[in-house]
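User: I'm putting together notes for a lab meeting next week and I want to include a structural view of one of the chains we've been expressing. I don't have a solved structure, so I'd like a prediction I can at least talk through. The sequence is below, exactly as it appears in our construct file.
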Amino acid sequence: MASRSRWPSTRSALRLFNLLPSYNLSPLLYTVRHNCSVAAAAEVPESRKSPIQILRTAAEVRSWRREQLAKGLTVGLVPTMGALHAGHMRLVQSSMRMNDATMVSIFVNPSQFAPTEDLESYPRDFDADIEQLAAQDGDNREVDVVFAPRVEEMYPNGIPLNVAEQKGAFVTVQGLSEQLEGRIRPQFFRGVATVVSKLLNIVTPDRVYFGQKDIQQTVVVKRLVQDLCYGSVVHVVTTSRDANGLALSSRNAYLTEQTRQDAAVIYKGLQNAVMVYRQNTAAEKIIEAVVSTITEKFDKDDIEYVCVNDKDTLEELETVHPLKGAIVSLAVRVPNKFGGKTRLIDNILL
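Assistant: Thanks for the context. Below is the predicted structure for the 350-residue chain, given as structure tokens.
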């Protein structure tokens, strides 16, 4: 048995990452790497006569928040990067059920993108996002406001994608950001922790909502809230899926219909992991079940990692304790519409 329950090894994973196509999903990405300003790439357009109040500045949000406090109303925040889908709407519905007022933020956060990633080509459709949010209602509640800041509002000192060139204050959650996604995308959780800190400082929500699909992110954010003494409660909502089990993601827009069908093996592999776990708690056997299922449709070299980790510490496990369970998470590169590869992540709880 391997000393650590991860497939492949760290060295192999990094080698695969360097060799395989990255997020270069469009020739346009060349411009953001070299000449295009980050602000232009991440900008949210003005919406035409929005049916929902749209706030652009921290000052506007704080003014709105003071009004809710004066009325004694609770506020839920759903942070998003736009390109909204049914999974986001589940988060919104959860907030509307639990709070008097709901705010949705739409901000494509540059600091969580590396220079080689898809900041410019990340899906954006602000007007469609607003239409979806305006259609949400439940128990006579609705989405009250959208916070769609400009890049310079969130990063007044600018935000080059190269970490070495960045200036200003950033937040890192040590011990939870370096493994799994952090091993492949080393600046990702620094960017996530920073923008979430900014949003919590600006909005001061009673509750904040994240999806289980990005499970490492939820662990990082929970620790961030705990360690920095934020007053918000973090709620994690179960993953929304297509009929074939594919986890909903904004980046699914990059996929062909054939790839969407083939990608059903990802969730199938995770379900097989649960079946194996019921008979054998060895992480090695659980991982083998996932890998063997995914390779029915995709090359083994396209599996960046499959890992079994502790739910709280993200420590890699060799054996799963039946009374505690674990997280089985993975990342797979699948063919996209542009002739390259798109990373899909998913997970399941044991």
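A couple of points you could mention at the meeting. The first strand starts at residue 6 and ends at 7. The first helix runs from residue 10 to 19.

User: Perfect, that's what I needed.
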